Batch of 2 targets.
Target 1
Amino acid sequence: MAVNTDVIGKTYPATTYAVGREKVREYAHAVGETNPLYLDVEAARAAGHEDVVAPPMFAVVYSFPAVMPVFFDREVGIDFSRLVHGGQEFTWGPLVVAGDEIATTLTVADISSRGRNSYYVFETTSTNQRGETVCVGRWTNIVRGG
């Protein structure tokens, strides 16, 4: 199936995620984190943070809502029934803490074909309420050929 490379560079509207203290704690517990900075407000404040700190991979929680629209964009043309996760890469900036409001935008970074498979690479940029880039993510997705 031919891929539509004309959509490379397309950017989607930002989604905003309000980082909640209990969500950070729930995530930390779910992934087995025991660092008190992720769980204990007083420990986080004693270390100089305003509230509990989100573990680095919490980036998936606040950025994934921005990823969803591209999967269902007819112009991009992903066959969701053949989609597999290819990989993720993140570059982090300032720490994210409970109380932050994170806005994430997604851009179609690349689309290519190799053999019968199609590769879709998306880049997310997440910024906090102070305009600081807290995370840049690259999401690689593979659509298996039929």
Target 2
Amino acid sequence: MHRKITSLWGEKKVVLRQTARAVTPFGGLSVFIEFLGKIGYRQQVSEHLPVHLKSPNAIEAGETFTAFLISVVAGARRFAHSGMLRTDRALHALLGMKRFPTDGTIRNLFKRFTQGMVVQLYEPLWAWQVKRLPERGQGYSLDLDSTVFERYGKQEGVKRGYNPRKPGRGSHHPLLAVLGEAHFILHGWLRSGNTTAGRGVVEFLKEALAKLPSREWIRVVRADAGFFAQELLQYLESLQLRYIVVARMTKGMQREAARVEAWRALDEIYSVGEFQLQLFGWDQARRFVVVREQLQETKRSPGRKLFDFPGYTFRVFVTNLPDPPEEIWRDYNQRACIEQRIEELKSDLAADDFCLQEFFATEAAFLGILMLFNLLAEFQRASGMAGYRQPASLRAQVFLCGAILGRAGHRTVLHLSAAWGGLEKRNSLFDNLLDYQIPTSRKLEFQPCATG
């Protein structure tokens, strides 16, 4: 059976024919699947996944969980989109799956999750991932931020709250902690939409720090004005952790910024100053750093205008670092990386699109995507890629590769298309994976703790 069509440019005839051979556009995923095997992914998921099905016809829960992650890597933005891989027999052969679960099977897996089951699965999996983080002599920057997941229904936890894009729309309000230099999401909570940014942040931070071998792994904690509260600062000081937090520009804070007299010019536009202040209800005075920026027609300023200083904007940071004000400011500006990570979670991995009626089912899927993000970051380190690549870039440059499934004797063979770079382009990645040394010196004791 065949058909003929006319090419758009050149008007030549092209014959269309059907083939029974298994073809996949995701032949490049073979590198990522090899990486998962190298780090013992299957053993970890099988050991800690708290769902055990008794039906002899049921697909193993670990395979269903993996099918969800692979669907997200392939570009799925809804549970229903996982159906695009159900007929991909070549990809099934790479995964070793006899059957690929339906989107309903994947949903039903997550619907089984309770709060305790979420902890039972993800706490040991995060400890497993942290063990392989590269050590950094000066420590990592721990960045805190929250974001908004817009929802279009009445799912559990969906409430009206802060939503700058669509005011009044119901949402969830996740909280994240990211190790900036490692591109690693250390912790995440899925919260109801009416929760403020800093609510519960001390308990959240306790859980995040408990995942690390020691507090010496943290160089500085950075957060925006949504986390400006003495409760957080006191907790960080009690642990002797350094911090940079944007001060909330209340009227009192604006007055103090306006009173600064000793300004030191960095260039024609920026000047810095500082002051000591004990706010009402605080137990002590703390150091505040002020950055003054002259307004420019061609550039938008993130600071606030003060009536006493027309033509300027101001940003104020509270910190216990001894560094000069300009170094505090430059250090905090590196926190912009967490906003990029959040954008990648939404745009590249659809973390805000997988939503179920049950809150803990949604949280289980959300944490699965956070874990996948960390796996993709480690994959880049293990395969020796130069520089960090976004998940969407990995998908386009590495994972997408036309391939045909075949056999050579008793062996299964996947023929990677040379037009897509084929095996030649990916051989160096496979070689680096073979040489990847998984750290074994650090030992972490898993101790379950409550989720948010």
